[in-house]
Each structure stands twice: as C-alpha cells, then as structure tokens.
C-alpha cells in the first residue's frame, strides 16, 4: 500500500482554483423563497445589489487579491442547479409543506445563472455591484459575501505554517464545543444556523453545522444553508429579508405609497406562503412606525423577527404590541437573528421562556468565531460586518433605516425623506460588530 | 480524480493489526545508554522486569483485551533494528560525542530482539513479567508501557463517534498549545520530552514533540524518544534509571556491599560516559543517605536528577550538599522529571533561575493530558501511574525505596533490610498521580 496517493498529491499542488461556492444551493433558503415571489410579482423590476463593508478599518482590497476574487466570482457564474438539486427542491418538504416551489418557477430556475458583476477598487475597498433584473441580482448576495469572507480567511491563513493551522482549527473546534456544552443545558431551546454569509469557510460552516447536529440534537432545528440542509438531512430555514420592503418602497411614487409599502410586501408574501413562513421583519424603516401603522391582520401572522434591536427590548416591544392587538403572545413566535452568541441566546431564552415561542438564528458568531484561535494573525481572522444590500430599484435609490442608525443604508436625501415619512422614534444607535 | 482511494479504504478496514510499537528505536534513549553498560559489565546477570499498576482503581485486565495485548507484544517481538537505524546510532552525535556506542555493542545490537513475556490476569490486573538476561529484559520496559497505555486509550476511544473524537483531539491540541504559550514567556527555560512510556499514543507523542519544536523553539532541547529524535532531527536525551542501582544492590552479598552499591554503579557508568551524561539519580534508596555517604568524587559529576521529591525542596537539598562539598552550584545541572506540568516547571524555573543550571524532563502531563477533553469517557483517558520495574536479579529480590514511600517497590522483608541499611530520614509520603 503506497503511503502517498501520488496522483492526488500532484493534483492538489497544481490546481488552478479551489472554488469557494460550488453549488447554487450554497445560499440561504430565504433567497429561494423571496426569489419565487420576486420572479412571480416583480419580474420586470431592476435592482442593483452592492457590497458594503461596515468595518471600514479593514481594507478588503489590500487583503484580498483582485485576480483571486475575479476567479471565484467567475467560477460561481459557471454554476447551474444540478438535476439532483432540482429534484430535491421539487420533492422535499419545507416548513411542513410539499411543493412549496411552483413548477413554472422551477422550470425557470433550472436555467438560472448568476448575472455579471462590476468590480473595481476604491480607497482600499472593493466596489462590487450587481446590476440587472432583481430576480437575477438578488442571488448574488450570499455567494458574493461567502466568497469575500473566505478569501479573507485564506489570505490570513496563508502566512501560517501547518502547525499553526492545526492549532488554530483545534482551538476553534474546542471553542464551538464549549458553546455546544453551554447550550446543552437548555434542551428546550431552538437554534438554527444562519451563518452562511459570514462564514470563515464552507468547510468550517459544515463542521459547525455537524457539531450542532451531534452536540445539541433536537435543539438544533436546521440551517439556512440549502446545500447543507440537503446534504445533512436538516431542515432548510429562513423566511424573508429587508430587500423586499426596500425595493417595494423604492418603487413607490409618493409618500403615502411609501408609508403603505411595508404592508403591501406582506400581502404579496402571504399569497405565496403560510404557517411558520409568515414572519414579519419589522425594522426596515423602524419598528415603532411599523407597529403603529400596521393593519390588524399583521397581528395574525405567526411571528416577528426583530433584527436590529437588542433581543429582550425588541422582543418585549412586539409582545406588548400583540397584547394591545388582543393576541396571545404564547401562541406567537419570535425569531432572533441579530449578532447572537451564546450569552445573548441564553439570556433571551431565559427571559422569554414560557411567555412566547422562540427561535434563534445564530450567524457569524457560530460560523466565524476565531477570536484568539490563531497563534498569530488573529486580527485578520476576525469577522467583519460585510453586507450585500440592494441599493437601487428601477433607477431609484433603495433605503434601509433600521432601528439602529448604524445599520442604515442608502442615499442621504432619501434617508431624510424616509425618516420624515416613518418617523424616528425608538431608534437607538448601537455598535455593529458583525 | 477519484474522491476515495478505494484500495486504501479497503485496506484500512480489513487490517489485522495497527502496531503500536513499530521500531526498536521507539524507546527512551537512556535504555540504550544503560544497555551498553549492562551488556558490557553485567552480561551474565538475569533480571526480571514486571508491570506494576500503581493506580489500582483502574482494572487494566477489564479495560484491555488480552488478545489485543498479546498481538501487540508479539508484534514488538518481530522487530529488529533496521539498517538505517543502526547507521544512525553509529553515525549520530549524542551529547556532543561521536561514536558513543562501541562497535562491538552495535554488532550485538544488530541482532537484538525482545525476549519472551509471561502474561496472565489476576484480580482484574495484568501480571506481565519478562524473565531472562538483564540486557534483554530491560528493553521491554518502554514498549510494554507504551503498548498498554495506548491500548487503554484505544479502548476509551472506541466508544466515541467521529465527532466526539474530533473534539477530543481538538481540545487536547488546544490544551498543549496553552502550555506552549505559557512556557514561551521564559525563553531561557530548557525542556525536553520524557513522555514515551505514558503517552496517549505514538502519534500523539509525535504531535506533542512537533508542537514543542515549533512552539518554544530553542527552549525545547530534545526528546527521550530515540525514534522521534531521529525522525525530527532533535537531540536524543536521557541518562540512567533506577534499575542500575536496584540490580547492582540486589547482587550484593552483605549489608556493607549494599551500602556501597549506589556508588559502585556510578563508577561503572563513568567508565562509559562523561560530560552531561554524568547525572546522578540519588533517590533509589533515599537521597539523604546517598548524599551523606557519597564519596567526594560524586560531587564532581555534572548534575543530579532528583526524581521523587518536590522540585524545589529536592533541588535545594542538592544545592546545599554541593556547597558543603565546596562545589559551585551555578556550574552544576539539576534535571527535574517527576510528575511535572507547566505549573511546577514554571515555579521551579523561577525559583532556581540564576542559582543552578536546570533542565526539565516533561513526561506524562505533556504526552497524555486529556483531562476534560472528551465529551464522555473522560476517566478512561486519564493517565495512570503504570511502571515496569526490575523485580529480581539473579534470583534475588530487587528493591527501590525512593524518597516517597508511595513509589517504593519490592519484597517487604528486603525493603525492611534496605531501610535498616540506608536509613529512613527525609522520606515523605506524597500521592503519586502519574
């Protein structure tokens, strides 16, 4: 038995590309749910998505080689959904429902490919934009983020010897497992992986998902990553994102339409989905105004995902609102997903236990926590706050206000107009770490 | 490129034996140094070596399968020194000296094989004895211990899934690296690996040795493991062990010869070796009597290895003695090797710094510290205090008194006689952990 597989060794040392994204299913599930609606209702809308690095101290264009980035983006553009993947999307049960994707949509999806990209450097950062139909450009969000984050990890790891790498991953594994053991104390908790976009790498996300599957068992409800859900027989989880209200708002013609737009999106959504997919994301233009102006039927939706307020304050505000509207919070669902880690998860769980149903979408601090793991170059492994946001829709600027002004995006004049329409109440500035 | 090397996979899953000891060089260097003298001076002496499990709560015969143990011992008996190994022994420089092994000895060694063993179960423990010529049986000590310790690890690991195994080793690596980072603060410290006998496994010892090599650089002076020294270009380290005074004492005909025997051994040793190999192991029959009765030339030896007293007390006692004998401790060497871990190493180092030269032989807590690493079955991975001691020489019982009565071995009547001859002063009972 030869000790070295010579062919493999030669292959490994001469390959041209180690692709980061190898499947179009390597994306978040909500992208597919939104895509079906975007394709169905907003087929002719153009939307531009743009990379935004909120961690301005990290100069991405200095850390990541442009040719490597282009090679990865180009590779992602060669991908198509495979037959196996199409069959699985058509045949799998999502959120308890068979055939959640309609045959017409799947027929279109079969020929989907990622559209072109625009890439250049400015002030040490990458300008990365995706122009075109919304139903094409929206699909870049997750692979673009995953590619940039993993290229950044690779650049940091390149300087390390085999031993430093071994210790780095050993420590990172030990760290995840400490978290697993803390979460194990709460067998009734419900946690899922929301860490695709900010992951250290694909293989590391897979390790983390498998760790949670083995480590917390029933408490682990699934992953937002569709490929990992398929490959590991987990539930694919996720609902909708800010891009829906942002684009629909950008398309409005006046302030009254703008004010009504957050609910118009929900009306469109509920024609497609029901049950646990009826989750409101209330903070696109401020949760306070959203709740104040919401039609009563919004309180009939299954739950809310407060995404830019601290979990306990954000959750309590929604519980109060359900009570005001005569609904029983104990039958409702709160999904937390903003910058969670074990501490915040545990605190929110203990606070809300018995009062409301809860689920935790654990992202960056699950799949990219390498704090103090590397013997050197630790800073270069620290996760950054990188997003890929819709910036224009049919030529109009797209805006997000958020409950946290640090998370606001968009044209300044438009932000001012939106603040006038929706009000500024209860917005609290908080540092955005990830 | 096929993803699975099918031939390797089939081979891996059908093999009969994964040998623990694969080379006769996989032993401690002092064994070879002692062997040359035993073969030269005591060629016709018989000595029996026996396994002694001082951790009686662990029932080895219940944890380790007898057939597996026999298969490993039998495999070790098939080994010969390879040509490459013989050339290296002849050509390498040890302790700054070329040709430390004489051609006659090497000619004999070339045909060496481990002698037969006697194995049976009693009261949940293994009785494992090696009878025959001292120059044959002595060579079983390290492989026998390494085999039993690794079989015990394997038995503990067998119950774990792939994920638990991954986390266990990740944690163990992270743990070693924490120790490395603490030791790095003292670049002048001198540490070597003495962990062959109690290692978790061969591969793990190799990992630990490579970790120290990369992690503390010049502060890592080498390993007692001859195979690892050869393979990783490190110094092979070690001097002599208790079996020398124990056998020589057992061969004496009366109390006066017995009293003189510890020095007779040293006289024989210094005919073979010099320099940093002139290290006194003073505690075989109690350090106090050894120092009191020592001829003056013993104070000319390079150093001492106090092996059964706490480092600081044990070291201070020897420093005082050097001063009494008019020697300058600053020119002398103390080697510490008894149950060390980072705490004790650091404390002793800071205490003796500037007063005496020091070296630390770090054993069990380097190569077998899996405390709190496994998600389950942790107890079964805890290192035990297992030794393989000479018990008879030419039919007479062999005795070790030690400075710690917990480490005494041998026939009770003989222990009483030895205590009468050497005295009991300054012996302190202390728990033996490893």
Automatic annotation (TrEMBL), chains A, B:
EC number: 6.3.4.21
EC category name: ligase
Biological function: Catalyzes the synthesis of beta-nicotinate D-ribonucleotide from nicotinate and 5-phospho-D-ribose 1-phosphate at the expense of ATP.
Annotated Nicotinate phosphoribosyltransferase N-terminal domain residues: 25-149
Cross-referenced SUPFAM superfamilies: Nicotinate/Quinolinate PRTase C-terminal domain-like (SSF51690), Nicotinate/Quinolinate PRTase N-terminal domain-like (SSF54675)
KW Transcription (keyword) present: no
Nicotinate/nicotinamide phosphoribosyltransferase domain location: 190-422
Protein's recorded name: Nicotinate phosphoribosyltransferase
Pathway the protein takes part in: Cofactor biosynthesis; NAD(+) biosynthesis; nicotinate D-ribonucleotide from nicotinate: step 1/1
Gene, per the UniProt record: pncB
């Amino acid at each position: 038995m030869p000790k070295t597989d010579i062919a493999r060794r030669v292959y490994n040392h001469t390959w041209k590309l180690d692709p980061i994204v190898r499947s179009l299913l390597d994306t978040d599930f909500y992208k597919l749910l939104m895509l079906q609606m975007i394709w169905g209702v907003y087929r002719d809308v153009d939307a531009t998505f743009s990379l935004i690095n909120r961690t301005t101290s990290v100069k991405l264009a200095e850390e990541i080689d442009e040719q490597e980035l282009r090679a990865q983006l180009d590779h992602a553009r060669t991908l198509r959904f495979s037959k196996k993947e199409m069959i699985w999307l058509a045949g799998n049960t999502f959120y308890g429902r068979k055939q959640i994707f309609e045959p017409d949509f799947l027929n279109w999806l079969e020929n989907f490919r990622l559209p072109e990209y625009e890439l250049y450097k400015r002030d040490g950062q990458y300008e990365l934009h995706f122009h075109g139909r919304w139903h094409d450009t929206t699909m870049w969000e997750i692979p673009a983020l995953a590619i940039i984050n993993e290229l950044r990890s690779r650049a940091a790891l390149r300087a390390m010897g085999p031993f430093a790498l071994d210790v780095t991953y050993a420590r990172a594994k030990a760290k995840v497992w400490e978290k697993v053991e803390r979460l194990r104390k709460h067998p009734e908790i419900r946690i899922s992986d929301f860490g695709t976009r900010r992951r250290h790498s694909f293989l590391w996300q897979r390790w983390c998902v498998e760790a949670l599957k083995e480590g917390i068992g029933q408490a682990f409800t699934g992953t937002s990553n569709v490929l990992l859900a398929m490959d590991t027989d987990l539930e694919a989880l996720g609902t909708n994102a800010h891009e829906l209200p942002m684009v629909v708002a950008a398309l409005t013609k006046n302030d009254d339409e703008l004010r009504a737009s957050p609910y118009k999106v929900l009306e469109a959504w509920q024609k497609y989905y029901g049950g646990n997919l009826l989750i409101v994301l209330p903070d696109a233009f401020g949760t306070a105004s959203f709740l104040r102006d919401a039609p009563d039927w919004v309180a009939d939706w299954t739950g809310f995902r407060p995404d830019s307020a601290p979990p306990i304050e954000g959750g309590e505000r929604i519980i109060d609102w359900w009570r005001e509207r005569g609904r029983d919070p104990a039958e409702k669902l709160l999904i937390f997903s903003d910058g969670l880690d074990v501490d915040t998860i545990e605190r929110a769980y203990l606070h809300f236990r018995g009062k409301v149903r809860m689920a935790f979408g654990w992202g960056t601090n699950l799949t990219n926590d390498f704090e103090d793991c590397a013997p050197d170059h630790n800073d270069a492994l620290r996760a950054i706050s990188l997003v890929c946001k819709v910036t224009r829709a049919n030529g109009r600027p797209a805006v997000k206000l958020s409950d946290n002004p640090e998370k606001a995006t968009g044209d300044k004049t438009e932000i001012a107009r939106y603040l006038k329409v929706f009000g500024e109440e209860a917005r609290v500035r908080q540092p955005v770490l990830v």
